[in-house]
Structures are given as C-alpha cells and as structure tokens.
Amino acid sequence: MTSPISDVVLGLPSPLEELADDRARAAGVRLLLKRDDLIHPDLPGNKWRKLKHNLAAAASGGSDTLLTFGGAYSKQILATAAAGHHFGFATIGVVRGEEHLPLNPILGRAAELGMTITYVDRAQYRNRAEPAFLRRLHREFGRFFVIPAGGANPDGVRGCAELPSEITEPYDVVCCSSGTGTTLAGIAAGLPPGREAIGFGALKGDFLAGDVAALQRAYGRTTTNWSIEPEFHFGGFARRTAALDAFVVDFESRHGITLDAVYEAKMMAGIMTLLDRGRWPAGTTLVAVLG
Fold it and tell me: Residue 289 contacts by C-beta under 8 Å, 6 or more apart in sequence?
C-alpha cells in the first residue's frame, strides 16, 4: 500500500450521536446513531470496514490489482475504486448489465478514480464465483485479488466485527441495514454477551438468514444473537415508494441528516415503525448504524 491507513481514514472510530426524536422518546427508548457515513467521503461506512482486511490480504499476497463485482449503482464498486486510488492498487469493476453512456455518477466517479469497468449479462453475473468464469476474467485481465460483491467474505465479516468495540455508551441492540448480510454477520460476531443485532433487509426474499449464517461459519464464529426484519424493503433492492421518499424528507427536516434510500432509510423507517408498535421495552438503548 502506498499510503498509511491513518492518512486516508480520518474518521475512525466513527462518531456516536444521540438522536433526539419524539418517537423514541414516546417509547421510552434511547436511540443512538453510529455515524459510519462520516468515516471518509470516498470510503464510507461498512464499505471501508469490509474492504480494510481484504486490502491487507491483497497486499500481503503480493497482488497489485483488485477486482470486484456489483450493479450499476454499486457503492462497493465505487469504494473499491477509491481504495485502489488511495492505496496504490489497480482496480477492475465487473458490472451487472449493459453499458450506458454517459456513465451514471457512481460509475463515472469510479472511472475517474482509475477503475477499469467491464460489463457482463445477468446470467454471467449469477455465475461470478464459478471457476470457469473467473478463469475467463484472468485471461482477460491477468492476475488480480477478488473482493466479492458486498465484501461478503471472512475478511469483510472481520472488519464489521470490529464495530461493537467502538460503542462507548451502554446499549442493548445494534441495528444495521442488510444487503449481503456481511455487516450483520460481523456485528453479531463482535457483540459482547447480552447484546443483540438486528438486520433490516433491503431486498425481498427469505435467503438473507442463510447467507448470514454461512458468512459466520466461514468467519469461524457462529452466534445466535441476531435476527432479520424482512418487512421494510419497500418493494425490493433499490426500489422506493412515495412513503419512503416522504420519510427521507421528514427525517432530514427533523435531524439534518440525508438518509440513503437504498439502505439506511429503510432501516430507520423500520426502527420508527417498530418503536410505534412497542417492539422494545422502555429503557432500551438502540444503536443504529448509518453508512
């Protein structure tokens, strides 16, 4: 790596802020925000946590090129491009779907940061972990270190498992948004006894619990202190509704924080709904991870 981590990641540990919200107050629940969205403008939140140990593994193995996968609006693609830019790796993004020009802001920024972008159809993308597909990519691009979509591997889990140790206030529950399940798997693995982790699924379907369990097994620490809320996907991955958009606007007007509609807005809308339903007893302290 060409630059010390401390030179790039200036916001660790990320701030812990209390959210003064009348819905939490009415429920007798203390709500804290773990502001991983403030870690670094190019490497926010769980993207940095999931990349951190993968970058170290790539460097220790002598790799000078990173290859990752994602959709056309994937923040994993952008974060990998940024990590390569800051730490001296070449980067390749394998994007699901067809090329559309001009590039959208995510892919445009990734290209500005030096990433080579290639496109595959959805059938090929589903087979991205197959040896034959990876051999084809190696023939085209040479030697590279693979970071899976969403950073979903043991090194990604390991980075997320470090988050609970940064929480300096007493708490009962950590909430996070869940796509691949890597963040939830790591946070749950890193929790001290008596704490609970809840993942708010951003995708439709009932596959996420199996993915989280598999990630923990691969990491080498399985736990039973986690659960998934599947109700708050608002139509599926990257889908949004008028109700979700209204929630984002209302949250910003209340708290001055613009939530990401793909992930964190769905989690926060879910938390507020569950507060209204009396999900947690008075006196509970929740930590919601943004970023």
Answer: 33, 34, 36, 45, 46, 163, 174, 175, 176, 177, 183, 187
Contact assessment for residue 20 and residue 277, using Cβ atoms and an 8 Å cutoff = no
Burial class (CB in 10 A: 0-12, 13-18, 19+), 278: exposed
Q: Average pLDDT of 19-38?
A: 97
Closest CA to 274 of 227, 208, 242: 227
Give the H or E element holding residue 245.
helix 242-255
Residues 95 and 211: their CA atoms lie apart, in Å, by 22
**CB-based contacts of 19, cutoff 8 Å, min separation 6:** 31, 32, 33, 255, 288
pLDDT tens for 169-220 read 999 999 999 999 999 999 999 999 999 999 999 999 889 999 999 999 999 9
In this prediction, residue 9 has a pLDDT band, given cuts at 50, 70 and 90, of low
Residue type, 102: P
| C-alpha to C-alpha distance for 88 and 167, rounded to whole angstroms | 31
DSSP secondary structure code for residue 220 in this structure:
T
Q: Tokens 């830019």 sit at which residue?
A: 85
- Distance between CA atoms of 39 and 208, rounded to whole angstroms? 26
Q: Give buried/exposed letters for 9-29 (b at 16+ CB in 10 A, else e).
A: bebbebeeeebebebbeebeb
Distance of CA 2 to the CA centre of its chain: 25
Is the whole model's pTM more than 0.90, yes or no? yes
Distance CA 150, CA 202 (A): 13
Sheet of 116-120, strand order: 116-120, 90-96, 65-70, 145-147
CA distance 151 to 14: 20
Domains of the chain, start order? 5-44+153-290 (3.40.50.1100), 64-143 (3.40.50.1100)
pLDDT value of position 70: 93
